[in-house]
């Protein structure tokens, strides 16, 4: 009996410390660590790290073609096997920069949840939801590019702090959609 309890407790401890192998969801209480970056670095890339994150969405359409809003699941995910860093080129600002990339994905997950919540869907929900998703995904990619450009991939500390504050404030404003 005790042996079984010990094995169960050991499994819980071991599994609770493990992140999903192929992806994991954004969590305000669980920031990125360098151990989350598992891909082999791209030696040709001019930057020191890359955090691969994005949005996933699942939804249900009823028999009349309408979206079932309460069944919609939108997640900002991090992809460890597509994310990497060059150990000799990183500094204390690099991980914060990569975290902000992940935070930008969460910001857009919240924007997508808000857009779905506010939209009056018709019997053409499948095409409507795809259009909303495509619009928000394009904005997410655009913001990621703008963030890298303005911060010079974490080299401009003043711009980095400005962006961190902007994203944190935006996440707070959309906290009802977390």
Automatic annotation (TrEMBL):
Keywords: Signal. The keyword Signal applies. The keyword Signal applies. It holds the Pfam family DUF922. Residues 1-21 form the signal peptide. InterPro entries: DUF922. This is DUF922 domain-containing protein. The lineage of its organism: Bacteria, Pseudomonadati, Bacteroidota, Flavobacteriia, Flavobacteriales.
